[in-house]
Amino acid sequence: MAQDEVDAGRGHSTNLVGVPTGLLVSAAFNEFPVPLRIAGVREMYSSMFEMLSRAEDPSEAGDVFQDYMCVIFGLDPEQREKTAEGKRRRFRSSYLRLIKGWGYDTNSPEGAVLKGWVESRFGLFPTFHKEPIRRFGSPPWIGYIEEKMSSRFHNNAIHTQLDLLYEFCQFALARFHSVGRRHLTLYRGVNDFEEHLLVERVDKRVVVVRVNSLVSFSSDRTIAEQFGDYILEARVPVCKVLFFNQLLPTAPLKGEAEYMVIGGDYRVTTSYY
Q: Where are the domains of the chain?
């Protein structure tokens, strides 16, 4: 594919975070990031952030967030309404269910919904879902669209749940986990570059790669080594982290020191395990 075709397919012209998508996906932004906010979320749910501001440690903040989500979106079993026959209504979509599905398989239907949320809020098109996505209308693109739009996961304001998850993650990173930091050093193990388009080769070990719209990294290099022979070491902007394993007291992804990261062009150092 020609470079102009690749660049034209990076994302929508608009998004909900106030930074042009072309800049947001660039290596320049990832090296010199600015804080991101999804428009209107903190204002609409100001009561939650007011409660969070009084939390004294990460665990208390996580409890506040999970309790708030359970009440607002009816995620506790005892809060689910029953039909006249006494049977429970259909399953209510949950951000935790999506994260769990992502942990099993990033190319799952849950993964498609998460990538669809990134597309909606940040403007980034996915570059991979089960196979490389190189053009609109191709079978991989159509498969992604079908899965991201499935009513199975869109019956409980799931995008709003993910908006709140992102904003809570940014709050927790700034308040407790990465105070004053703009970057995290994270690792990703790969066996090949099928999922990552090589944008620029800087030198023998340093390259710029275009990673998927949503991608997993690990904070532990030894864990990343279990997923591939090549290790990509990246300085990931804190503002591009959607979820990480220490964010909530009880949540999926605990075993792999995993970070779910918004994609784009990343300058990475490559090494062979």
A: 3-272
